[in-house]
Amino acid sequence: MAKSKYIMHQCAYCHKQAKMELVGGMQNEGDAEPPQKVWYRCTRCKHSALLDAVTVQKEKNGSVVKIERSECMEYSKEKAYSVGQAIYHAELDDVGKVIKKDKMSNGIHSITVSFEKLGERKLIENVRLEPTPELAVSQSSL
Ligand SMILES: [Zn+2]
Q1: Which residue of 2, 58, 90, 128 shows the fewest CB atoms closer than 10 Å?
Q2: 77 and 124 in a common domain
Q3: Does residue 55 have a pLDDT over 60?
Q4: Is residue 52 part of a domain?
């Protein structure tokens, strides 16, 4: 169950991929929250860096932190999205992440998406005349 103490990470001091040693984490004990920040020390220059645990995880799994098209939900104004969700906008041909949700004064829901190429765009979501019992879907597995 022991995890590797070492990761490969772009060291801010060496300016190259360096082997980093785990020196300590800032974890919330017994909490459902995942650990947020972890200290790593570069084995080349001995500088310590406080890294985002999520970033580390991503760098371990893949190489570049990038939104994969296959992970994206295709954007459609009838659908509802959540913050952090990756979406693909077919018309704009760009992928992005939902960074904010809003409800406009006219009752229309909107999301702000940070697109890889286009930057921030505001899109409408959850457009429907009547609310449909979408929440019931998650209970169907019972
Ligand atoms: Zn270094």
Answers
A1: 2
A2: yes
A3: yes
A4: yes
